[in-house]
Each structure stands twice: as structure tokens, then as C-alpha cells.
Amino acid sequence: MALEFTTSYITDALSLFRYYKRLAERAMEQVTDEQLFAVLDPEANSIAIIVKHMTGNMRSRWTDFLTTDGEKPTRDRDSEFLAPAATRKDLLADWEDGWSRLFTAIEPLSDADLGRAVTIRGEAHSVMQAINRQLAHYPHHVGQIVLLAKHFASDHWQSLSVPRNKSAEFNRNVAAGEASQR
Fold first, then answer.
1. Residue 88, Cβ neighbours under 10 Å: how many?
2. Domain of life, per the record (predicted)?
3. What is the pLDDT of residues 83-122, one digit of tens each?
4. Domain range list for the chain
């Protein structure tokens, strides 16, 4: 992720959400359809279940973000850990729907909105606290998706950042790119 200097919390938060969304997508692209639904043990979640949970959370938190409680009465959190979408296509459609709700809720905000009050499970949060809550939650699950995808892809894994044992080469390339931009 190329860093864009900003003093806007909203701009920075949106950049981070986009980064983690894409990180999970790049990981999911590296696994087969079957691996999306595979579990490592009976207590583990599949990538598909993690996606279902994240999208359920996003639908609840970001629909009518400023006007209704972030824990919607229609949300059945426990069911998010059962029976995910049956296909990659359907799973990714749900994924896009969840992220679309997040971006639709946050993009119109300005830093002046950060002190506004919203509720989650009946508790008051500032807009900034509510966003921070999800900036902690979603990357946690993205990390799980990446770990599972890396496990399943194994020898075929393509690094999502600096490849192992390639730090010096990466740093040289970054330095060369910066020099060429001067």
C-alpha cells in the first residue's frame, strides 16, 4: 500500500479499509473453490465462514450507520458461523455487498462528523470510535483469511508483501523507484 500523506482521519481510514479488503481478496484469489470452504479442524472456521461473519457484521454496522444501532435486530450473529454461501461467486457477491455498505456509509463523512454519536449494542460511540472498532475487527479476520490461504496455497503462495528472503531486493527496488520519481 502506497502511503498517501493525509491529516484527514476519514481519508486514512478509508485507505486502510481498502487495503485490507484487497489483501483478503488477493489471498482468496490464490485458493481453489474447495479450499475456500475447507476447515483445518472441527473448531476452525473456513475462509468462507470468516467472510460470511465479516459481511454480516458489515451489513449490521454500516446500514443506516448514523441513524440506527449498529447491531441490527435482524442480525443473527450465530448463524454467520454456519452454512456460508455455496459458491465462490455468491460468497464474493456477499463480500462486495458488505464492503459497499461500509464505503457508502463512510465516504460522505468528513472529519467534522467524527464526534457525532452512534450506538452499537445500545452503547454510545463517537463515529471515530465506531470506525476504529471495525479497523481493529476486520484486519483481525483478514489476517485469518491470509493465514488460511497461505496454508492452502502452500508452495504456490505468492507473497502479498515483501517475499521471504527478498527484503534487500525489495528495498533496492523501492529506492530505485523513489530515485526515478525525483
1. 16
2. Bacteria
3. 999 999 999 999 999 999 999 999 999 999 999 999 999 9
4. 9-176
Q: Which CATH class is domain 9-176?
A: mainly alpha
Q: Is the pLDDT of residue 3 over 70?
A: no
Instruction: Give the Cβ contact number of residue 22 at 10 Å.
Output: 13
How far is residue 113's CA from residue 128's CA, in Å, rounded to a whole number? 8
- Picking from 82, 59, 83, the residue whose alpha carbon sits closest to that of residue 71 is 59
Residue 120 cell numbers, joined: 452499537
Question: Which candidate, 95, 94, 91, 118, places its Cα nearest to that of 106?
Answer: 118
**Cell numbers 464474493 correspond to what residue?**
92
- Report the SS3 class of residue 122: coil
Nearest Cα to Cα of residue 24 among 117, 142, 124: 142
* Whole-prediction pTM: 0.88
Whole-Å CA distances, 65 to 70, 83, 119, 125: 7, 27, 9, 12
Q: Is the pLDDT of residue 182 over 50?
A: no
Task: Region of 60 please: left (phi>0), alpha (psi -120 to 50) or beta.
Answer: alpha
133-171 pLDDT tens trace? 999 999 999 999 999 999 999 999 999 987 777 777 776
Neighbouring C-beta atoms of residue 114, cutoff 10 Å: 16
Give helix 9-28 / helix 127-153 axis angle, nearest 10°. 20
